[in-house]
TrEMBL record:
Stretch list, region Disordered: 160-180, 479-537, 560-689
Basic residues: bias regions: 167-178
Ranges of biased composition (kind: Basic and acidic residues): 488-507
InterPro entries: Gfd2/YDR514C-like, Gfd2/YDR514C-like_C, RNaseH-like_sf, RNaseH_sf
Residue ranges annotated for the Gfd2/YDR514C-like C-terminal domain, each copy included: 255-469
Molecular function (Gene Ontology), one example: nucleic acid binding
Name listed for the protein in its UniProt record: Gfd2/YDR514C-like C-terminal domain-containing protein
Any single Gene Ontology cellular-component annotation: nucleus
């Protein structure tokens, strides 16, 4: 190792371990006093550096913003574990490859990139000092290597595992807590919006200013005024009398359409059942909900469609399928062909919204053409009523929406869909639970009876019942969980010596209190995006994050280049044993002094003084032409004028919506980085992904 020079390739077949993962080993894989003792003896207080390590680096080739990965030869790590085992009489093995796949990494594939030598980590050097000496990728200081494209996919997977192995598993606690509170706020807001749709919570009368009492007001009057404010703001809800109609107007007069789709357990591409249940809020006007919402539940209109081509398929291994057991109280099963499924489903999202008697049942045991199955009476479903606002309902709604897209019907393309409500989320907001409950368990908790679950029609009906029951039950303060954790749970946690579990219960209760104490009406609905627009939105967000990382990483690269090519004699040249200078004409003296074209060596290395690198806003560490194409701003795409994007102002930094007008690296003016340009709006089609969208997705993946 002593004879290696910076940039020299490691020998073929040598195994390595990520430096970051090795330094965290005693804290991750040892516990209690042993972890502390091993840390004190071999890792903490400079003990790790004092041992001395050979440090290698490798360019990850994941993206231009990822800094090189630092590695330690596996043989040196093995010796460390051996010494730890001898010193403490414990078994100190490498982590299991299943638990931590990136802790041990080899480079045995032909044509795969290999690590390069960086230097020795000792008491006299720090890992930061070594990182600053990493040569730029492809520079003359790095030994040439042969890399084949066919090996890069496996190589990148190894790099991702190795990087993940060295990451801190416990992010900032405060930020993590705020993230959890934000998620819980979203759940609570969805429940409040659902209550607004059902007329159980007032919409749009929220005043967020706290009540300010009149100093001349009596204590009793002040209390009444405070209570009136809390009710108006949605912080406190008055008792609900279920024998009376809904106390507020039905927000947006929506139609709830609950969807449940069943697929064959051995092949999810084969959709076997579609269940749809409709609840029209116009049917609930002046109708009391009744005990537990029983009267409202009678207004549901349910449909159960079975796919004729897959009538022989039944789930038995993972769930107990019962496609032939649609409950009579909800209706009768109807047979359709798979080709008809998109159109039949679409009719349920139009007036008259799942009215019965519009289809002729199709007996699968007769030898008639599948195309004749359940013929549509178009004269009965066309031209009736007006378009209404629709709210999609489901239990794990996203999965059912994806199944509908799979058969060719994308509800995200409907402009009158207000949002999608998930009853699994509603129950968590109601009970202040974090774990997702199955539909059967929720029915049991709410006192509802569910027969023959995993029948798509039954599940859609029961999910709609759960929606009604949760919205009513959550308004009763006696049904809501207390903000302080039950003492019984605390005692059990203490008896089990689970102090962390006890603290987590307290924190969980505090988070729910912070999430649910604001009141309000739940805010604006969160609309669904068509499949194509949703993918474009994800691409834009990903490009935005890449740009922010690139802005920071560019400064590091500039500092590194300046370190090698600044005021170190003749230029960017490097030398071993002497100075090669900028023209490699310097004498090979005793050190690494920088010579001019024919300048002499020197007594030692003369590092360039560290200066703040100049900003080069036109320098982008990724292929901008590819980004243009990926984001739809290439030839024929985007709003451009005279070959560039018009700028309305100059703002600084990646976080601003408009970037500064900088020099175009290809010669133009008014240059705007691709990831900051406006998104291209696309029109999605039901169940269809255009060839242009597929090409754009492939191109952006190749770019990264």
């Amino acid at each position: 190792m002593a004879q290696l020079h910076v940039g020299q390739l490691a020998s073929f077949g040598v195994g390595f371990c990520p430096y970051a993962a090795v330094t965290k080993w005693p804290y991750r894989y040892l516990h209690g006093q042993v972890s502390q003792d091993v840390s004190e003896a071999f890792f903490a207080h400079g003990a790790f550096r004092e041992r001395g390590w050979s440090i290698f680096y490798i360019h990850t080739r994941l993206d231009s913003t990822q800094k090189p990965l630092l590695l330690i030869p596996q043989a040196e790590v093995q010796q460390l574990f051996h010494d730890i085992g001898e010193a403490f009489d414990i078994f100190a093995p490498f982590p299991d490859v299943v638990r931590d796949a990136g802790f041990q990494v080899d480079f045995l594939e032909e044509g795969s990139p290999r690590p390069r030598y960086l230097g020795r980590l000792t008491n006299e050097t720090s890992i930061q000092d070594l990182e600053m000496t990493i040569p730029p990728q492809g520079s003359a200081a790095e030994e040439p290597e042969h890399v084949e494209d066919r090996s890069l996919a496996a190589f990148r997977r190894k790099m991702e595992d190795s990087i993940q192995s060295g990451k801190n598993k416990k992010p900032n606690k405060a930020k993590k807590r705020q993230d959890r509170i934000g998620v819980k706020k979203g759940w609570c807001a969805q429940l409040k919006r659902s209550q607004c749709y059902l007329g159980l919570r007032n919409r749009g009368s929220v005043n967020r200013e706290d009540f300010l009492g009149d100093p001349n007001m009596s204590w009793e009057d002040s209390q009444k005024a405070q209570e009136a404010y809390e009710i108006a703001a949605g912080i406190k809800m008055p008792p609900l009398d279920t024998s009376l109609p809904a106390p507020h107007r039905f927000d947006r007069n929506v139609v709830f359409i609950c969807v449940d789709v069943e697929a064959f357990e051995r092949d999810h591409n084969k959709v076997t059942e579609i269940g749809i249940c409709t609840l029209d809020t116009l049917d609930l006007i002046k109708l009391p909900p009744g005990a537990g919402g029983a009267e409202w539940m009678k207004q549901m209109r349910c449909r159960h469609f079975r796919i004729a081509e897959y009538s022989h398929l039944n789930n038995t291994d993972f769930v107990t399928g019962c496609a032939d057991k649609f409950e009579p109280e909800f209706g009768v099963s109807e047979w359709i062909s798979i080709n008809e499924a998109p159109y039949v489903t679409a009719t349920c999202f139009k007036p008259p919204y799942s009215e019965k008697g519009k289809y002729i049942p199709y007996p699968p045991n007769q030898s008639q053409r599948l195309s004749d199955a359940s013929r549509i009476k178009n004269d009965e479903v066309s031209g009736l009523g007006q378009r209404r606002n629709i709210v999609i309902v489901g239990h794990d709604t996203s999965a059912d929406i994806e199944y509908l897209r799979q058969i060719g019907y994308d509800v995200g393309n409907l402009s009158n869909v207000a949002e999608a409500i998930d009853t699994a989320v509603l129950y968590r907001a109601y009970k202040h639970e974090h774990e997702t409950r199955k539909l059967g368990m929720i029915l049991l908790e709410l006192g509802l009876t569910g027969w023959n679950l995993h029948n798509a029609g039954n599940d859609a009906a029961y999910t709609t019942q759960v929606l009604i029951a949760i919205c009513l039950a959550s308004l009763n303060s006696s049904n809501k969980p207390p903000f302080s954790p039950p003492s019984k749970k605390l005692d059990e946690a203490a008896n089990d010596a689970a102090k962390e579990a006890k603290q987590r219960l307290i924190e969980e209760s505090e988070e729910w209190q912070a999430a649910d104490e604001e009141g309000g009406d739940g805010g604006e609905a969160i609309p669904l995006l068509p499949a194509e627009n949703r993918k474009a939105d994800e691409e834009f967000t990903r490009a935005m994050n890449k740009g922010r990382k690139a802005d920071e990483y560019r400064r590091i690269e500039q500092a590194r280049k300046q370190h090698y090519g600044g005021e170190r004699g003749g230029g960017p040249g490097r030398s071993r044993g002497g100075s090669r200078g900028g023209s490699r004409g310097g004498s090979r003296g005793g050190g690494r002094g920088g010579g001019g074209g024919g300048g002499g060596g020197g007594g030692g290395r003369q590092p360039a003084p560290k200066q703040a690198p100049e900003e080069d806003s036109s320098s982008m560490p990724f292929d901008e032409d590819a980004m243009d194409e990926a984001m739809g701003f290439g030839p024929g795409g985007g709003d451009t004028q005279d070959g560039g994007v018009r700028l309305d102002g100059a703002a600084e930094g990646w976080a601003t919506p408009v970037a500064p007008a900088t020099a175009d690296p290809k010669g133009g003016t008014g240059y705007l980085p691709p990831h900051l340009r406006p998104r291209k709006q696309t029109q999605g089609k039901a169940g269809v992904v255009s060839k242009e969208a597929l090409d754009r997705m492939k191109l952006i993946d190749d770019t990264w």
